[in-house]
Design brief:
5-stranded antiparallel beta sheet; about 60% helix
């Protein structure tokens, strides 16, 4: 038996060299490859050293045997850690704790220090006999080394076996699970038998047994590619999304898909695993995917290593269905392992969008948002002034309070003096109250412009409320554009407008004023807002002297996408204003423009809805 093990060890050595060279030459470059290379190197050192020991005995070079035993334990110490690392990375190939796993090497390093200095302290061996292991007396640290090594081997074995048993169905191959169980169990069992000094097991049994692990791991990792798409990664995908998904490996072979995907697409195509996705789609089926080239997009996803998006329309059971298809590259440590294709049902969203596009109110909301963006700087300026004033008043009030506190024990301060200080305090408080009221009005104005975006409720408002709100929102923008806003109110300011929305009307006036300011092109000018009453309606006029509307667009200014501002205009402003006056208020809108002189924009709002 001993001679047979001796010869098997030579064969094992040749196999290790072959596996090591083959592994190094592989183009795959990931953490598992380098762990496997370490594993082979340590196993090669272990096996070679055991063989050399036997030759030393045959050549009567007994003095070298003990020294070579230290080399054996060098390999033994580190190979157990590598087995654990391989097990962890088979089970969790994308775990984020790998940088901490390097600390697993601390005990093997300490073992080497203690082993090579053993004659000084005998912590590893008190007495060692190569020829009769039963006579060997071990030291205290030997137990630490043994427990640690077997713990690493045990947990490495548990990880790989648990991986195999739990994911057997997902790998779709009983052979793969069987190879994992054999490769991890054989060396552990043999090593235990050798440690227990059972008959037929010697110091060459364990390295020979590890060759079984080498061969099985080599087949699993580089022939069957069990790490191309890991079940652990697949489980993560399942946990992250409830959408339809299908996963293909780096060769575009279908690895897995979830139940919703199977339920939907099995009606349309001959869906199955372990076949190329392009082959499945090219088969005769009821699914028309001519809108997107799946194979080309997957290849682009691999090349760019970034998420790609496509839209897909299908007819399923006579219904038009729309999907947003997301191609996600599955990258582990920079290596491409496949592609996760997600199908998100956007049918309802598409239908809603079509309704929204047909809804005129949506255009009004979009234009109002654009206008609000222009007013933000003005609002900030308007708020800054009262805030600074409040800060100053608060400082003055603080001084008065200190003065009042200091005057309390002063007998020279009369009651009149106390009343005078209190009056000064009241004045400062009143000033603060006025400024906070102004801030509140500004906030209400801005809030009013945004509330309309989410509702269609109408309320009554007066001309005074309207003018006050316009002034708050446009004051800073008018100053910034070097213009002067003039109000001509030719009717009772308490006149109430009903059946409309003040914020929508403000939007119309704001658009006309902004157009006038932009027409001045930075040159100072006057803009007049005139409000009058005529036979049951209010007439608004916004006038400027900025040169008028170009003749080539005058007849089209109330049409959608017509603008005289070039790339700076959207062509929606006056179109939406015109639609708002007619649709919301039931009024009329027109203009008068003289090219080279100026423009008057007119619109009416009925007093009774």
């Amino acid at each position: 038996m001993d001679n047979m093990m001796f010869y098997l060890a030579h064969i094992a050595l040749v196999i290790m060299i072959f596996l090591l060279v083959s592994t190094i030459r592989m183009k795959t470059n990931n953490r598992m490859k380098w762990y496997f290379i370490q594993y082979l190197i340590y196993l090669f050192i272990w096996t070679l050293t055991v063989i050399i020991q036997r030759y030393c005995v045959q050549l009567n070079a007994v003095d070298l045997v003990d020294t070579l035993e230290n080399v054996v334990y060098f390999a033994v110490s580190f190979i157990s850690v590598v087995v654990l690392l391989i097990g962890i990375n088979i089970y969790l190939p994308n775990n984020r704790m790998n940088k901490w796993l390097r600390f697993l090497y601390i005990v093997p390093i300490v073992t080497q220090i203690i082993l090579w200095t053993n004659p000084l302290h005998h912590l590893f061996y008190v007495y060692y006999d190569y020829f009769d292991v039963s006579r060997t007396v071990v030291g205290a640290y030997f137990y630490v080394h043994t427990i640690y090594s077997y713990t690493c081997l045990l947990f490495g074995t548990i990880y790989t076996i648990y991986f195999a048993t739990r994911n057997k169905g997902r790998m779709d191959s009983t052979l793969k699970a069987l190879l994992i169980c054999i490769g991890t169990s054989v060396p552990l069992v043999v090593n235990i038998c050798f440690t227990l000094a059972l008959p037929g097991f010697n110091n060459m049994s364990t390295p020979v047994a590890f060759v079984v692990t080498c061969i099985t791991y080599f087949l699993l990792l580089f022939k069957y590619n069990i790490l191309q798409i890991s079940p652990a990664v697949m489980k993560q995908v399942i946990d992250m999304t409830s959408d339809l998904y299908v996963v293909v490996d780096e060769n575009m072979m279908i690895i897995d898909y979830n139940e919703p995907f199977e339920t939907l697409f099995s009606k349309l195509i001959n869906l199955r695993r372990q076949v190329l996705i392009v082959d499945v789609l090219e088969e005769e089926n009821d699914l028309n995917l001519s809108m997107i080239d799946i194979g080309a997009i997957i290849e682009e996803c691999r090349t760019k290593q970034e998420t790609l998006f496509r839209d897909l329309g299908l007819v399923i059971d006579g219904k038009n269905m729309y999907y947003s298809v997301e191609f996600n590259p599955l990258l582990i440590e920079g290596g491409y392992y496949g592609c996760i294709i997600l199908f998100r049902d956007i049918t309802r969203a598409v239908n809603d969008m079509q309704q929204i596009q047909a809804n005129q109110d949506q255009l009004i909301k979009q234009e109002r948002l654009a206008s609000l963006g222009q007013l933000i700087s003005g609002i900030a300026h308007n708020l800054n002034t009262p805030i600074m004033a409040i800060s100053g008043r608060a400082e003055s009030l603080d001084v008065l309070i200190d003065e009042y506190i200091n005057s309390i024990p002063d007998p020279k301060v009369t009651i009149e003096d106390h009343h005078e200080i209190a009056e000064d305090m009241k004045k400062e408080i009143e000033n603060i109250r006025n400024h906070t009221s102004y801030i509140s009005e500004i906030i209400s104005a801005v809030k009013g412009q945004t509330v309309r975006l989410s509702g269609d409720t109408y309320e009554n408002f007066t001309i005074r409320d309207l003018v006050k709100r316009i002034d708050l929102l446009l004051r800073h923008e008018v100053i910034r554009n070097k213009c002067n806003l003039i109000y001509e109110i030719q009717t009772n300011e308490s006149l109430e407008i009903t059946g409309g929305d003040m914020n929508s009307l403000i939007q119309v006036i704001d658009n006309a004023v902004m157009n006038a300011m932009q027409a001045y092109k930075g040159v100072p000018g006057d803009i007049t807002i005139k409000i009058s009453r005529s036979e049951g309606e209010v007439v608004f006029t916004i006038s400027d002297t900025a040169g008028g509307i170009p003749l080539n667009v005058q007849d089209k200014i109330f049409q959608e996408m017509i603008t005289s501002k070039g790339k700076d205009g959207t062509g929606l402003g006056l179109y939406i204003s015109y639609s708002t006056i007619l649709g919301i208020f039931g009024g009329k809108m027109w203009y008068n423009s003289v090219d080279g002189v100026g423009t008057d924009i007119y619109f009416t709002v009925p007093l009774v809805a």
